[in-house]
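Data availability (excerpt). The following record was deposited with the supplementary files.
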Amino acid sequence: MKKNLIQEIKTLENLPNSIKEINDFRKNDNSDIKELVKILKKDSFIVSNILKISNSNLYGTNFKVETLNKAIETLGIKLTLAIAIESIVSKTINRNLFAYAVTNDDFFYSSALSAIFVDNWLKQIDEDLKNELFLPAFLQENGKFIISQVIQDERQTEFFLKSLVEKDNISACELEFTGYSCSRISANIFKHWDFSHNIIFPIAFTEDLENCPKEFIHKAQILNVVKILCDIRNPLSDNNIEKALKKVLEYNFDVEYFLNALDSIREKIEKNSQLSLSNK
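Predicted structure:
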């Protein structure tokens, strides 16, 4: 399947011009919401994803968020931009996740959760590191779209899903069936589109730390923990929390900071879920 995966990446279309406009806004630390709304309204898919996340249990309001302006106020500019970039990326890849038995909405939820966890976790430790890893955390699972397509093309979906259940290790199953980890495929997608090395390298070596350049090891370890914790099929499950915590200990990270972030997010999700039910 390796050749098929590489071919899928090579045939990806170029990202639309809108990505440059959004990236320029992000890199310039622009905080003009009116200007951002003007940019984002050009793509209804972006707007739809922003509204879905703002109305998910990751965020809680006493009313349904129905406007882009209100959604940006709810999410903040940084997360809004990450959702916009991911929307453009996934729309350009234009594949499904049937091989994983999850939807694109599930994907956006777990991706947003990953970025939010990085924000909550690393703001206690290093503000610059938090800002550097926020977007890679959101983007690191895009390789799953390509893997899913190739597995479907090879008529291996049923066997892949069975393996996912039996092994309870998505990364191991991806490697077994395709010869590549999702992290390596994601990195090659972004290399194909000439993304920054600061995005490509931490993602590329998330599951290959032995070969990771020294300057990116710490970042790759963090993304590895987040990847496990926010597993697209079972984000924040007790099993994944236990696995992620083992990695935190293995990498000699401060357990207290990790647990503080985890408790904060779980409490928020529980509270927002209850709020959502009471508003129905």
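Summary of structural features: The chain has a mean pLDDT of 93.
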